[in-house]
Amino acid sequence: MKTFAAIDVGSFELGMKIFEFSGRNSMREIDHIRHRIDLGSETYATGKLRYEKMQELCRVLREYTTIMKAYKVDSYRAYGTSAIREMKNMDIALGQIEQNTGIHMEVLSNSEQRFLDYKSIASKGELFNRIIEKGTAIVDIGGGSIQVSLFDKDTLVSTQNLRIGVLRLQERLGGLNAAPSQMENLVDEMAGAQLSVFKKLYLKDREIENIIVVDDYLSKWIAGYDPGHEQIGYVKREEYDRFMNRIREKSREECARALGVTEDEAALLFISSVLMNRIIKMLDARLIWAPGVTLCDGIAYEYAEQQKMVICEHDFEKDILACAKTMSKRYMGSRRRAETLINLALSIFDSMKKIHGLGRRERLYLQIAAILHDCGKYISLVNLGECSYHIIMSTEIIGLSHMEREIVAYIVKFNHDEFQYYEKLSAESSLDKNAYLIIAKLTAILKIANGLDRSHKQKFENVKIMLKDNELIFTVNTQEDITLEKGLFTYRAKFFEEVYNVRPVIKQRRTL
């Protein structure tokens, strides 16, 4: 039996959940501690926290440390989200927090945070799997931004971040001196432009029947809503419309009393409700589900996965690859060429396991890089590598951290451009030597795979790869002329030899 604590330093609330793992696939929440602290309003506006706010944050975290000791917690994870992420003096603040509380806090990138929220929903198992069988959107509403992720036939196909979170909108509304009766229209107008662009670029003809909502305000009402004949946590569109009509007619004080929240929470709930109302209409969704999970659930679920205490039923890698394929399609990538590159690159990777020492995660990076190998041609055929790098770095791939996305971007870039050694690369990025070596090893493989199909005619579809002594032998059965491939292969093989001290060799076997 293990006890684990998940700490979420959010924009509006500091939360901690204590979990107990008592066997295979047994994860039980035993306590949930929450402290309201508005960090987001200050950091979004000024980029820093006042002395008094930092003191309060450290005081509460010290109390959390005491609680963890009382529960005899075996391990913990503490994560900061957008309020910490957008601090100008983030590293200084994290140092102060650890020095004053003993808690080591890591800061999640937006894609990491949303992926953990996604995992917290997926931990619901059958409920989650059943609802995404039809067109579904996950709407993850945070203090600084919202994330809209679209599912098609139970696969995540697109995800986009919109900087219209509830605290950010509240901060902007605060400077307008608007009357309460104007608030809904103002929120609608501020969010409308970004939502309209999202609909035009990503929704198109996709039909969305269900919405899964994750937030700190609205989902509490939905999760506790009991219509008397449906499962708790589900709200039909007509019922949501009635809810909106009720909160429009009430003052903030009346809403707070009716919903059992503070007036400040009622104000944020109103903004969240208006955002959701706009999204429901945009998607024309019929059902809203609030699974009642928080980031802490995702943190605990990921920890349990890493410790092999739970078996994940949902294939998250499939979602990551689906997002990459959608991204390639958006930038007019060649699907057939990508499939050839994937098969060649992964075959080389698998045959070189004893040499490169890389694992399943690195194999995924290579697969994504092969899918996105030519995305930059959408902008420029001359600067293909550089343009591909910037497209990948500017597009979130949920499930990949910022560092992982940067690794993929450099693999694609160096597949086309001259490789940069660590002294130069470290001057323009924060990647460490371990990440640099991963980039070098996977770039060498992708370059070879690309060289084998340089004519884009898939001449090497029927190929056998064998590692023998210090040679990687490619035996191809083809009647095609492979003079071009052999000539360009020699040039690309030089970097492969440099990285692995293994010489690639092509052998052609002509069969009648």
Question: Could you give a short description of this structure?
Answer:
The chain is α/β, with parallel strands linked by helices and 512 residues long.
Helicity, as a percent range: 40-55%
Lateral arrangement of strands in the main beta sheet: 8-7-6-9-11-10
Low-confidence sequence ranges: none
Overall form: globular
Distance between the termini: 64 Å
Total of helices: 22
* Rg, Cα atoms, Å: 26 Å
Number of strands: 14
Instruction: Report the structural category.
Output: alpha/beta
SSE layout:
Layout: E1 2-9, E2 13-21, E3 27-36, H1 40-46, H2 51-70, E4 75-80, H3 82-85, H4 90-101, E5 105-107, H5 110-122, H6 126-131, E6 136-141, E7 146-152, E8 155-162, H7 166-174, H8 183-203, E9 210-214, H9 218-223, E10 234-236, H10 237-249, H11 252-259, H12 263-283, E11 287-289, H13 295-306, H14 316-330, H15 335-351, H16 353-356, H17 360-371, H18 384-393, H19 402-416, H20 422-428, H21 433-452, E12 463-468, E13 471-477, H22 483-500, E14 503-509
Describe this structure in words.
The protein is an alpha/beta fold and 512 residues long. The chain has 22 helices and 14 strands. The strands form 3 sheets. A 6-stranded mixed β-sheet has the order 8-7-6-9-11-10, with helices on both faces. A hairpin with a 4-residue loop joins strand 6 (136-141) and strand 7. Helix 10 packs across helix 12 (263-283). The chain is globular and about 80 Å long.
